[in-house]
Amino acid sequence: MKPLVATVVNIQEESDNRYHAAVTLVLPDNIEHVELMLEGISAEADASALSDTDPGTHSIGISGQGKPPFEVGHRIPVRAFERGELPA
Question: Residues 66, 44: contact at Cβ < 8 Å?
């Protein structure tokens, strides 16, 4: 597993007490799967994982209930697995 970080680039608060945010991250060669490490940030935050990725800049959406637990510019740790390293 390779340590990487994603940066919050956009946050939108909704009228129904929800928020949507976007993070970007740059992936090096040979990364197969990435997941945002949101456990220490918010139990309500949810984000999809990226699989079968290509190198370069990628965006991941985050959504949750209540006020966003981060601001634009906040850095979120990422679990990044190299090809063949993903646990079964």
Answer: yes
Contacts of 23 (CB under 8 A, 6+ apart): 6, 7, 8, 9, 36, 47, 59, 60, 62, 76
Domain ranges within the chain, ordered by starting residue: 2-69
pLDDT of 55 > 90? The answer is yes
Angle at 77 between CA 31 and CA 79, to 5 degrees: 35
Average pLDDT across the chain, whole number: 91
Summarize the confidence of residues 22-40 as an average pLDDT: 93
